[in-house]
Amino acid sequence: MSGNGNNESDSSSTPWSNINDINCSAFSGRGTIMSPSAAVLATLAVGDILNINLRTAAAVQAWTQARQLVGTVFFTNDVSLPLIHCLNEQFTYQARITSLVGGSCELLIYSV
């Protein structure tokens, strides 16, 4: 993936033998917002772009462009460890909302 968010695939299924082998500028994956803010979620739509940030050493959060917290990201596959590594390495990530049904918000996370 080029990291521009235009690709529906993700690179998270690629195995790695060493965390330092991950190409952070091309890494992408899928996640779901857990315990989203209902008020903020109501303002979002499929296709909207969110900012991805590390809150603590292991908590990844999604924020709107207006800096409103959407919620904590739960990863649907083996994304957590490499994404946290890349965020700690100062790479910038965003997420595009791919599905928004009721209180469920699914994301495609990618490097920018």
Q: What do you see in this structure?
A:
The chain is mainly β. The chain has helices at 38-41, 80-88, and strands at 28-34, 49-54, 60-63, 69-75, 93-101, 104-111. The chain is elongated and about 40 Å long. The relative contact order is 0.30.
**CATH topological fold name:** Alpha-Beta Plaits
In the CATH hierarchy, what is the class? Alpha Beta
Residue fraction in strands: 35-45%
CATH architecture: 2-Layer Sandwich
Strand segment count = 6
Key attributes of the depicted protein:
single chain; 112 residues; mainly beta; Alpha-Beta Plaits; six-stranded antiparallel beta barrel; 2 helices; 6 strands; elongated
Quick gist of this model?
By secondary structure, the chain is mainly beta.
Topology, element by element:
Layout: E1 28-34, H1 38-41, E2 49-54, E3 60-63, E4 69-75, H2 80-88, E5 93-101, E6 104-111
Antiparallel strand pairs: 1-4, 1-6, 2-3, 2-5, 3-4, 5-6
